[in-house]
């Protein structure tokens, strides 16, 4: 478990939009060490962190990140993409869903979007803010977004000062090609 380059870019996007976060319901999926979710909570959002319910050590890492940052109010839940569970069903409507580098294995792409789509049904105005590292020109979300009736806006990294090799004094994201997406249901506008 470590901070992926995408997490730093998503955290930069959150920092750039920090004034809009207080009071927002935010869920981070695939949180791992939870940098974006921790930052959102520090900026006043009501955050729930989630990772794979089948990997308890991932959930322990989320809890440790909360403890280290004195965020006892942040809830940690186990969610497995593509599975309808009691924990998924009990989540309140969200305003923002965060994900950094969850689009890693192509076989998981549809399960991730199916889970996000389910959550979007509870609040059709929710936005899915996601960063991913471009690993192959052959991998695309476009067809799946269309299938799940979602639209996507690619946010230029320059627009939130994330178009550098080093952000916030770190060595990340380095020379990795990172994309920032804002996804919503097709029938709603931003």
Explain the overall architecture.
This protein is an alpha/beta fold. Helices cover 29% and strands 21% of the residues. The protein has helices at residues 5-16, 35-42, 56-68, 86-89, 109-120, 142-147; strands at 25-28, 46-51, 75-78, 96-100, 127-133, 150-155, 178-185. α1 runs parallel beside α2. The model has no long low-confidence stretch (mean pLDDT 90).
Short description:
The protein has helices at residues 5-16, 35-42, 56-68, 86-89, 109-120, 142-147, and strands spanning 25-28, 46-51, 75-78, 96-100, 127-133, 150-155, 178-185. The protein is α/β, with parallel strands linked by helices and 190 residues long. The longest helix has 13 residues, at 56-68.
Strand fraction band?
A: 15-25%
Q: Biggest sheet: strands, sense, closure? A: 7 strands, mixed
Share of helix, binned: 25-40%
- Category from helices, strands and their pairing: alpha/beta
What's the helix and strand layout?
Blueprint: H1 5-16, E1 25-28, H2 35-42, E2 46-51, H3 56-68, E3 75-78, H4 86-89, E4 96-100, H5 109-120, E5 127-133, H6 142-147, E6 150-155, E7 178-185
Parallel strand pairs: 1-2, 1-4, 2-3, 4-5
Antiparallel strand pairs: 5-7, 6-7
Helix pairs in contact: 1-2
């Amino acid at each position: 478990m470590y901070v992926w380059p995408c997490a730093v870019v998503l955290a930069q996007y959150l920092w750039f939009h920090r004034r809009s976060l207080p009071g927002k319901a935010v869920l981070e999926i695939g949180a791992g060490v939870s940098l974006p979710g921790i930052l959102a909570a520090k900026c006043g959002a009501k955050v729930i962190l989630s990772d794979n319910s089948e990997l308890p050590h991932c959930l322990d890492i989320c809890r440790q990140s909360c403890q280290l940052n004195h965020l006892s109010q942040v809830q940690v839940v186990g969610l497995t993409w593509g599975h309808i569970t009691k924990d998924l069903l009990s989540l309140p409507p969200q305003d923002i869903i965060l994900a950094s580098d969850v689009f890693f294995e192509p076989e998981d792409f549809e399960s991730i979007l199916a889970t996000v789509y389910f959550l979007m049904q509870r609040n059709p105005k929710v936005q899915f803010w996601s960063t991913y590292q471009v690993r192959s020109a052959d991998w695309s979300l476009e067809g799946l977004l269309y299938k799940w009736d979602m639209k996507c806006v690619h946010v230029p990294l320059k627009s939130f000062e994330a178009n550098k090799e080093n952000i916030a004094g770190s060595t990340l994201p380095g020379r990795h090609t990172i994309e920032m997406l804002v996804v919503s249901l097709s029938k709603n506008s931003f």
